[in-house]
Write a structure and sequence with these properties.
By secondary structure, this protein is an alpha/beta fold. It has helices at 10-21, 33-40, 51-60, 96-109, 128-141, 163-168, 180-194, 205-233, 241-249, 270-284, 290-314, 340-350, 363-370, 380-384, 397-400, 426-431, and strands spanning 2-6, 25-29, 64-67, 78-81, 116-120, 149-153, 172-177, 199-203, 321-325, 354-358, 375-376, 389-392, 414-417, 435-438. The chain binds uridine-5'-diphosphate-glucuronic acid.
Length: 445
């Protein structure tokens, strides 16, 4: 089958390459000529384990090609739309890429006598697939929705850093459908991949659109909830949020995943999707989603909590040498979008600290923002050398391997473990006279 993928970011590229790996012919469309050239040369523009290898295989077998020319998808049976839906200043989503790609798809399909199924994978607020994508493509192509043109909304749940694994092993496939014919075609397509190893839910376009937001904002709310409890734990002798989360997870009604207390969530999805659902609720249906607003507020405060802890030890941070270990918004990615590290760095710069940084993958991206304002190091050890305090911001595996004695190279070590990865070495930190603080663990001052 010939499949078109419009928008070759994380979602589009991973989906396209997985589809190609099953023997389908995939045409990837992107407006970024540089990206298209890079992909056709076998290189991925971001770091994602396993993806480059899959791209090379797909190129070798001639089952994947990237292009900027929409005419290439004229004879595609299924066309996925996976363009970005960035935040506007008021938090609502900017639909300009959805609109422009729909127009271009419509033009490409004009005059075609075949049935084409359009599938929206981008995260869009309820109503967008039907009222914007469907309408534009039908109008521009001159084809009638239903008999000549199918329409589905099929949200994506892959995580950066494990994009390939998630795409190959989804726990659910949500199919929002305009009509039976569209839904059946997409269901059959995915069934060939996943058989009975996953759950399928077929529903309306609007339900599918909202399920995506509902899942991301629920997971974000779980994180803010556990971080709120973590802040309570820090004030109660003998309390630790790890044990509280474990205890809660033992209750069969509460899933223990996404209950890791820390400095909060970042990335290109959770903050954006929360803001979009809040803006949609307020602007489009006149409803105040109070829980979602609290989730965002708690998250905004949580990053700076690391600095509050530091101030207890160092008071004035002006001129002090502070190390940040971990810059990406989570491990196994070089992505720094809405990363907690950025909020911490901005605040430390404002307070006049000298900031030394190290991350296994995200140095280039951070340098692009901060240039000479930071001191860059090639290893955690170098970044710690003679520094006065350190904040572990991202839980990269190599930081988990640090030993308490490694921190003795600091001037007078104050360790703030923002991801609780060294808590099991607390006794040794104490024995060595190192001030060690972590999120959600009672502070003995
Ligand atoms: C998230 C969702 O998990 C995916 O299902 C979804 O497809 C994606 O958004 C999207 O909408 O595109 P992602 O942003 O890649 O995926 O990363 P996650 O692994 O979900 O982590 C998000 C943030 O939450 C990270 O900053 C992470 O450090 C933080 N987090 C996660 C915690 O602070 N505690 C936890 O227990 C788990």
């Amino acid at each position: 089958m010939k499949v078109g993928i419009v928008g070759l970011g994380y979602v589009g590229l991973t989906t396209g390459l997985v589809i190609a790996s099953k023997g389908h012919e995939v045409i990837g469309i992107d407006i970024d000529d540089k990206k298209v050239k890079m992909l056709n040369a076998g290189r991925i523009p971001f770091y994602e384990p396993g993806l480059e290898e899959l791209l090379r295989k797909a190129l070798d077998s001639k089952l994947f090609i990237a292009t900027t020319n929409y005419d290439a998808i004229r004879d595609a049976e299924i066309i996925f739309i996976s363009v970005g839906t960035p935040s506007r200043d008021d938090g609502s989503i900017d639909l300009s890429f959805i609109e422009s790609s729909s127009t271009m798809i419509g033009k490409a399909l004009k005059g075609s006598s075949d049935y084409h199924l359009i599938v929206v994978k981008s995260t869009v607020t309820p109503g967008t697939t039907r009222n914007i994508v469907g309408r534009i493509i039908a109008k521009v192509s001159g084809k009638k929705l239903g008999d000549e043109l199918g329409l589905c909304m099929n949200p994506e749940f892959l995580r950066e850093g494990s994009a390939l694994y998630d795409t190959l092993n989804p726990d659910k496939v949500i199919i929002g459908e305009l009509d039976e014919k569209s839904g059946e075609k997409l269901y059959e397509f995915w069934y060939e991949f996943y058989r009975d190893d996953t759950e399928y839910l077929r529903t309306t376009l609007e339900n599918a659109e909202l399920i995506k937001y509902a899942i991301n904002s629920f997971l974000a709310t779980k994180i803010s909830y556990i971080n709120m409890l973590a802040n309570i734990c820090e004030k109660i002798p003998n309390c630790d949020i790890g044990v509280i989360a474990r205890g809660m997870g033992l209750d069969k009604r509460i899933n223990p995943a996404f209950f890791g207390a820390g400095l909060g969530f970042g990335g290109s999805c959770f903050p954006k999707d929360l803001r979009a659902l809040i803006a949609f609720s307020k602007q489009s249906i006149n409803y105040d989603p109070l829980i979602l607003e609290a989730t965002l507020k708690i998250n905004e405060k949580q990053a700076l909590h690391a600095i509050e802890i530091m101030k207890r030890e160092l008071n004035d941070l002006h001129g002090r040498e502070i190390t940040i270990l971990g810059l990406s918004y989570k491990p196994n990615t070089d992505d720094i979008r809405e990363a907690v590290s950025i909020r911490i760095i901005n605040e430390l710069l404002r307070l006049g600290a000298k900031i030394r940084v190290y991350d296994p993958k995200a140095m280039k991206n951070i340098k692009r923002i901060y240039g000479d304002s930071l001191i860059y190091h090639n290893s955690a050890y170098d970044a710690l050398d003679k520094s006065e305090a350190v904040i572990i911001v991202t839980e990269w595996n190599e930081f988990r391997k640090l030993k308490p004695k490694d921190f003795l190279r600091m001037k007078k070590p104050v360790v703030i473990d923002g991801r609780r990865i060294l808590l099991d070495k607390l006794e040794e930190f104490r024995r060595l006279g190192i001030k060690y603080y972590t999120i959600g663990h009672y502070f003995e001052l």
